[in-house]
Structure formats: structure tokens, C-alpha cells
Amino acid sequence: MRALRSLLLVGGLLLGLILAPSPGLGMAGWPGAGMAQAAPGLCVGPICADEISRSSQFPWQLRLRLSDQRAHRERVVVDCRDGGISPLAGPVERGFAGAVVRRACRLAAGPGAGPGEVPAA
Q1: What is the spatial distance between Cα 108 and Cα 118, in angstroms, rounded to a whole number?
Q2: Cis peptide leading into 115, omega within 30 of 0?
Q3: Confidence category of residue 19, pLDDT binned at 50, 70, 90
Q4: Cβ-contact 31, 25 below 8 angstroms
Q5: Taking CA atoms, which of 20, 37, 58, 65 is between 20 and 30 Å from 101?
Q6: What is the DSSP letter of 31?
Q7: Which pTM was predicted?
Q8: pLDDT (tens digit, 9 = 90+) per residue, 34-70?
Q9: How far apart are CA 12 and CA 29, in angstroms?
Q10: What is the Cα–Cα distance from 121 to 111, expressed in whole angstroms?
């Protein structure tokens, strides 16, 4: 009787470990099933920008966070007058980063704005 009870106890513990969701898994045991996933902001190719904000001191300046598919992330400051990115070098590839920056500046400038126009304050 004791052997049967210990066998059932060990079997129940093993079954509980198998069926319990792991950390990082949703309630159904599938990755992301119970977790909220953040939507990317503005993407061009493998590079996405989010947390986009305008400088209160300089209306032509945008601050944003760039990330790529290799999990490289960095915060940059953009001068929308000439498309300059500061810092000039970083972990995120600057070719696609430039395209994301140009699109962010166009969107910040508003509808009907021409290339190189300063975002409306």
C-alpha cells in the first residue's frame, strides 16, 4: 500500500511538472499565449523605430529608439533638416536606419510637407 501511494505521489509530481507552464510561456504553455506583445513602431526592412518623440527645445529634432532583428538596440537623435543621425556609428546598420529616420521625419512633418521640411511644432 505504501509503495502504491509513493508511486502515485511521484507520478503526480512528474505530471504536474510536465503540464505546468514554464516561465516565459503563456498560460496555455505556448510562447506568448498569455503575454502582451508590443507592436513595432515604424519599420523599414529589418530595422524598426519606436519610442519616437520630438524635442521640446528644437522642433526639427526627433529622438527615437532603433532596433533590428539581431536584438541590437540604440537610442538616437535625428536632425530632420538634413537627416543627420547622432551618433554616426552604432550597433544598428545605418543604411536602413537612415530610411527609418527619413520616414519618421516625413510623418512628423505632417501631410503635404516636402522633403527636408522641419516638423510642425
Answers
A1: 8
A2: no
A3: very low
A4: yes
A5: 37
A6: B
A7: 0.60
A8: 433 445 689 998 999 999 999 889 989 999 999 999 9
A9: 18
A10: 14
